[in-house]
Write a structure and sequence with these properties.
The protein has a domain at 168-193 and 200-302. The chain has 15 helices and 18 strands. By secondary structure, it is an alpha/beta fold. It has a six-stranded parallel β-sheet, with helices on both faces. Strands 7, 8, 9 and 12 form a four-stranded antiparallel β-sheet that branches.
Amino acid sequence: MYNICIIGASFNWTRTIVYDMMAVFPERLHFRLVDLNPEAAEVCRQWGELATKWCGRQDTFSAFTERRQALPGADAVFIAIATGGFDAMTNDLLIPEKYGIYGTVGDTAGPGGWSRAIRNIPVFAEMARDFDELCPEAFIVNYTNPMSALTATLDRLCGNPVVGLCHSYIQTKNVLQHIFGLEDWSELSVSIAGMNHFSWVTDFKIGRRDGYAALRERIGGGSLLDLMRMEEPDANGFVSGHRLCAALYDTYGYIPYVGDRHTVEFLSYTLSNEPKRYTFSGPDGVQDDVLDHYGIKRTSLEARQRRAAGFKGRIQKEIAEFAAALAVDEPEAGQPIKSEEPSAELVRAYLTNSPMTEVVNMLNVGQIPGLPLGACVETFGMIDGLGIRPVMVDNVPESLLEIMRPQAINQKWVTEGVLTRNKGLLLQALYNDPQCKGLTPDRIRAMAEELLEANKRWFTL
């Protein structure tokens, strides 16, 4: 039996992780569900116990509010937390708005990502120490943003194999599949290099055919945008019109991560200096800002809260459905619903020494030669019983390296600045951030002071 710990056993991630692990592991699993909200942990435990019976399995579930009680002897740990919740996220978005910066997501780059990092890094540093003490051999999967800074924190402070995972590679392959009318991914060979939410397809093939040559032929005298789905939902249900993706392809000749809502936060000319925007009213009545630049929707906090409530409602509905199905004398066994997420396969590759490769986030030890060593980068990695080893990506164009370099350096400075409580380094990360290029240094310092004050419950200098 394998012991699987989920830290941040929310109504969103628990269902996906549990189903994926059930689908990949025929062995019996024990899930330890940890959440500061006892209701979330308990409801997810109830769901899990019914789900395993519905699938004809014998997995077991325990609920905790204290992670140190759940970690001893864990074989794998999944992290999906949001330190401070929606209240803290409000400050990540609204404080930069006072300075003319309108983040679309606010969880990766820019002052919003900086703010989210400074309150999460101390929590991740504590978790890293717990992993070293209580489960030093466990495979650690991080889903929490800002992915780069938080995965780097774990990688620096604990000896466990650590990987950061994101939907970006999945979404990019889905778009390529659509562009070329492929039935599945089997013909796609894709090379990825960059940072989380700002990676680039440096090379790809369709079967044995050069992908970029085939793409240029397919575009002809038109635009990449002509070949892409419009308003396509990502794995979390958010949509991207791909206008920015197409514009960046036209500019650099390479396809970036296709999720415009995230990519836009790495640029200097889109979110700052009071960008033009208009209001969009969705079918649920929630009003969101839309940036005039590339028509990218900013997700309101109200919409995020409604979405979170929807996840809770889904689990509660499934609890009732499972109970009804199991009440009959001879219930039909269901099947776990496997997502496209690769995390369960990665855990199995490590625990059973079954080598595989997958796109991962980990510290740069030379896999992207043109980016700073020690920055957390996104490339392929090989996973087996030894842990995770990155795969080198050579010949990354200098134009792409230069546009990625500021955020790679910023991530290093933010992580180091929080861990050493170095205010000067933290400020340098904001001075250097593309979103802040239109602000004078004194305005940047004033914004930093407001963000530090808003996060003082979790981080003080």
